[in-house]
Amino acid sequence: MDRPDAQHCVACPSTGETLQMTTVLLGFEVGSGVPVEIPVGHMAVTGQSNVSGKTTTLEGVVSRCGMRAIAFLTKRGEGSFRVASPIPPYFKDRTDWRFLASILESVAGDKLKFQRTEIMKLSQDYAGLEGTWNAPKTLAEVQANAEIALIRSRGIAKRVYQELVTYLDDVVPQIALLPSSPQLKLGSGLNVMDLTPYDFALQALVVRSVLEWVKTKAQKTIVVIPEAWKFAPKVRRSPVSMAAEELIRQGAALENFIWCDSQDLAGVSGVLLRQVTVWLFGVQRDAREIERTLDHIPADVVRPSRADIAKLGRGEFIVAHGNELRLVYVQPAWMSAVHAEAIARGEESVESARQIVRDFDLEHEHAEETET
After folding, report:
1. Distance CA 148, CA 110 (A)
2. What are phi and psi of 279, to 5 degrees?
């Protein structure tokens, strides 16, 4: 049933051009048990955290799609991946003015306009009223330049330098302690970076570095953006949104895709969502979140009711792509297709998955103890 080489026709969101895309088994239709496949492309997965089963869904689809993927752990206590390879953080310094501007925009919550002049000064060789410095090669050197400029600057320029210095005061010391790898090495299947020890600002810079690496050096690679409403917000630019927008516009030709994981889609960058070809909607209980979910379901299909969204069980998702809308129980990576189909048909309870995953965890713990 797993057919990673199957093909599916979809329309490119940007051009309307018909594209041939690989398909992958998502799971089984609730009620009928019919296998449901989806095209492998840019995807958005939403649902209430710790209830819907988003992490298990992402892990299951990656395990069957025949591509490599990278995901990130960003919060302590969040659902973890069971079938994945841990890899060290990857960070690459960047000091051009566009990147520095995206940092300030994320701090200020608004787009920069005339302040760009001050940012450009910091990113190049400069000798002027604010001082003298060389073009920086690291963010630590940007910080040093900004500290020099801060002493002599006035007005709006002073505020720009102060905001950048304050931001880098938090980030630069963490970069120095980051056990980062000078190269990003991805194995087959799902790779996971644990970023939970670091503040959000540094997490964003690591995610941005990974996105840029995939854009310039990778093929057939999926990047899962966690909490997309936070890392790639709708109302302002950020270091992640800048890199993600470049990848999502250019990556499809090399089969590099972004999967947005977000409890709330309303706050996610519109540039990203407009490129999405596959939508997975999980359970929502808050009335506002239910309405936002319904707003994102294509208008040319029969939409589910509010109650349908609220009653979804763990691992159950409404999947929409093209003109198709199906209610699916997603097969986890650690569950057989036979058992997943039985749950979809109602012949087994969803709760039976708990025993399967407990057995899976015990088996792997025993294997690890044996190896050591």
Report:
1. 25
2. -120, 135
